Automatic annotation (TrEMBL):
Pfam families per record: CC_PcsB, NLPC_P60
Organism, as annotated: Enterococcus eurekensis
Family: Belongs to the peptidase C40 family.
Taxonomy, superkingdom: Bacteria
Biased composition annotated in UniProt, kind: Pro residues: 312-322
Organismal lineage: Bacteria, Bacillati, Bacillota, Bacilli, Lactobacillales
Positions of the UniProt region annotated as Disordered: 243-326
Gene3D superfamilies from the UniProt entry: 6.10.250.3150, endopeptidase domain like (from Nostoc punctiforme)
Signal peptide coordinates: 1-27
Chain segments annotated as coiled-coil in the UniProt record: 27-110
Record keywords: Coiled coil, Hydrolase, Protease, Signal, Thiol protease
Protein name, entry field: NlpC/P60 family protein
Biased composition, class Low complexity, residue ranges: 250-297
NlpC/P60 domain boundaries: 324-441
Amino acid sequence: MKKRILSSILACSLLFTAVGTPGIAFADDFDNQIEQKNKEINELKSQQAGLQSQISELEGEVASINAEAEALFAKLQTLNEETEVLKQEIADLEVRIERREEAIRKQARDVQVNGNQANLIDAVLNADSLTDAIGRVQAMSTIVNANNDLVTQQKEDQQAVKDKKAENDQKMVEINESQVALEAQKGELVRSQADLAVAKADLAIQQSSKESEKADLADRKAKAEAERARIAEEERLIAEAAAEARRQEQAANSSNSNTNESTSNSTINNSGNTNTNTGNSNNNSNNNVEAPSTPETPVTPAPSVPETPSVPETPAPTPAPAPSGNSSAVIAEAYKHLGKPYVWGGKGPDVFDCSGFTSYVYRNATGREIGGWTVPQESAGTRISVGEAQAGDLYFWGSAGGTHHVAIALGGGQYIHAPSPGQSVSVSSVGAWAPSFAVRM
């Protein structure tokens, strides 16, 4: 009976061990889950590659726009040089015209006082011969005609120069309009690049999360497999203990059978003495002691699989508030970059375009982000007139929403800016090139 109880206990222990580890039955599912994570990670990598391709395409468009802008700026520089030449030619012509007009005025006074006819008569009368008289008349006529032709030519040249200057001014207007379009297109591309960069970063975060989940699954799988191996070993030990118990029970049953057979034979042989045999039989019955039972093997309860502790999310640090604007700090930062070359699209610290310069200066002097090109920078403060601008404010060239140049006011009608290709960061005045409006920063 005790052996049967022992066997039942061993069987129950085996059953409880199996039931006590519900997670082990799903250990094989970890491979499927890990494979699923791998697919998700590969999909995210594919999306990242697609976004990178778009970013590269946009960078190519930016490079193309850069080349177009450089060509426009080179043309603008050529026009500026031609304008300077034309201005000098006009100035020289005006001087010559003024001198010749003075001579013409003198000649006119002579004609008015003495009369052109009298001068002609004097020339003829004072001639030594007819040939000399004819020569003098022709000479005077040639001089007068030459003066008239010279004045006419000068006027024509002056008008031609003015026409060229007007044509040149029109070309500069067209170039400014092209610059406005390029600046707007650059802003659009910059925004697109920023959006794609954010999307790429988001995918990278998702990939990192999936990698972490995959690592967690792998760790849980390893623990589950270790637990399953432990349970298998425990089952083996329990099975061995049960087999040994059955063997000992069979041995005990065999010993009892032999003892009972011997007692029966003794009873038959001593049938004459009933009381004695009965007493012996009772004694034999009392002396039938079962074989000692094997002590029960203690069953170690299966420890439950420890849950992976969840990592508490670290709250994102609250960004420090940006320092307030400081005009002296802005001016000091701007002056640090005097002489650095202009490059369209340059954002510093070694090369700048106009909006890249103002953006870089404000970011480093005050911590403010005022935008990467001229149009968003128009909204960085309050629009004011050019005459109201103070040191640290911004000057803009062009109409609101379509500006093509920006500079930092220094006060006193001066400003510092990155002018154009071939030039460097420098100081200029509103008298030399007047801005369209200003923004109070």
